[in-house]
Design a protein that fits this description.
homodimer; two-stranded antiparallel ribbon; DNA-binding; about 180 residues; Arc Repressor Mutant, subunit A; mainly alpha
DNA sequence: CTGAAGTGTTTGGGATATAAAACACTGGCG
DNA sequence: CGCCAGTGTTTTATATCCCAAACACTTCAG
């Protein structure tokens, strides 16, 4: 009677999320998805894709018909839509609200899309809805933010960028992996 | 003459980032950090911590004195400060700007703190500085955002929350792992 | 039909991340 | 002094993720 424990914890890894989203994108774009197509899209070998997809099939997220065409189960479809929605929301937020350059926004979004909680994603979406609502205060805000270019004061007590100290200046491009 | 390649790519994994930050926190709080202390803080076994830290010592991020007390090299210190700054900025952003509940903000922050680029983190910090700047438009914005409670319209063409469709509604709490 | 191209799987290997357990060292208490 | 708790390492094992390479199967052009 402890089956719910294993069932409840359905952690989808970064890799699994990408495989599932790849299948959805292939289905939407070409109408079919095979192991090789997923591998090509993700730029990994067929062998790797085969093994990962075997696991996803075993977990009931990915389906396969008699001609080896892949599909998504109801759960898999849900995961795909969830991840894609988060990706879309975050990218829009980075670019439209924060003014991050598109390429960098893509990189950041890809890394965190499957990690952000639904609650937080919905908050970001709410934020974007407000920004686009046409409410005068959001318009003013947009303009003022775009013009605002004050660097961090460096004063620990007043610097709002972080509580510890003005550490932002030290943020190098020490790209932290995975 | 290709040494720069291996040298240039210094990807710090999620795990490595946590180990390094743990050392910094222990040093700040207790004045020393040993393998066991790190393991306790991260709630992993001494064995696991020992092996991970061996790797970090080998990569020149973590130091160890003759009495087995751990420290951080200049690079390690830099990584620690960078990750902590990102963590601080993101958490503040989630809570102050988005209104995410603190516990959830902690979870989300922990997952993405080491993944967000310096560029994006700095943009978020800039955003926070503006919010706290006292600029009237930011004050108005704050208030209006707090009161704004319009759900997603569900209309694909006008819904700002995502370009594809109003997928946010489908965001379940299917916690995606790692 | 035959061979080449494409597809899917398996095998063997490497890397990371973690645990459990066994082992060795250290330091203090009685 | 001797023992035990605490500490650090190594070994053995699991799990994910990936690649390269070999193998088997299918399909299609000629």
């Amino acid at each position: 009677m402890d089956a719910w424990k294993e069932f409840e914890q359905n952690p989808i890894s970064h890799s699994a999320a990408h495989h599932i989203v790849a299948i959805k994108e292939l289905l939407d774009e070409y109408g079919y998805a095979r192991v090789s197509d997923v591998a090509r899209l993700l730029e990994i070998t067929r062998g790797s894709a085969s093994i990962t997809l075997k696991g996803l099939k075993g977990r009931g997220l990915v389906t396969e018909d008699d001609r080896r065409f892949l599909g998504l189960s109801k759960t898999g479809e849900h995961v795909a839509r969830s991840v894609i929605a988060k990706k879309t929301i975050l990218k829009k937020f980075f670019i439209d609200a924060l003014g991050v350059e598109e390429h960098q926004a893509d990189i950041d979004t890809c890394k965190i899309e499957h990690l952000v909680s639904s609650e937080t994603a919905e908050r970001v979406a709410q934020f974007l809805r407000f920004l686009d609502s046409g409410d005068p205060s959001s318009e003013h805000f947009r303009k003022a933010l775009a013009e605002f270019d004050e660097p961090c004061s460096g004063d620990t007590s007043s610097c709002p960028c972080c509580a510890e100290a003005c550490l932002v200046k030290e943020l190098g491009d020490d790209e932290l992996g995975s």
